[in-house]
Amino acid sequence: MAHRFSGRTALVTGAGSGIGREVALAFAREGSQVVVAGRRREALAETVALIEREGAKALAVIADVSRAEELRELVAAAVDRFGSLDVAVNNAGVFRGGVPLADLPEEDWHAQLDTNVTGVFHALRAEVRQMRSQPGGGAIVNIASTFGAHKRAPGAAAYAASKAAVSALTRGAALDHIADGVRINAVSPGATATSMSLRAGETEAGRAERMRGEVPLGRVSAVAEVAAAVLYLASDDAASVVGTDLVVDGGQTA
Fold this sequence. Notes:
alpha/beta; Rossmann fold; single chain; seven-stranded parallel β-sheet
């Protein structure tokens, strides 16, 4: 299974921490040169240092996915440095919630739509336009969520709407562009071992105790487990997988 991505260029947005960083490292460990994107320069520098420690090449690009021009420049930077764009993982996302929908500030609604939905749209356009110009095409994996197409919860209506849109956008784009040689799929993580799954004031030990009662598996998913799902969908092992939304949630939405 090692080196499935030797000689390929992978792009990961939201790669400064959490799932994005782990996905970027997983590609590096399997032979890819990796372009990491995000809005925090120091966090991206840390990710690059970790990738280089694995013996792989990396490029950090500051980019806000809600801005179309910055996504076009991001893809251009990847191709300029490494010669192609073979895999893209659209992971950048934000959560603004915890209150009933009627009490959600309008700016929090727009922040989630701008990043979680419009950001994926901008990324897909820039990535597909590059990939369909290449003889080998490419593979794209969007990070959705179990919140949205698979489950809902109080205080997360706007976030769920944005992530449900990612799932629908993934399926539609997959049908539009498979004939161009571009495979598009999504991964929907459930509760994962990142700060986003911690409730206000909750410790990791407290989360572990809560998960024993909430998740059939009895625990949160490790970021490496989510990364493994992403790499599968991006790899040639999934050559006939098109437009799927792979849930990784320990059975919570089964």
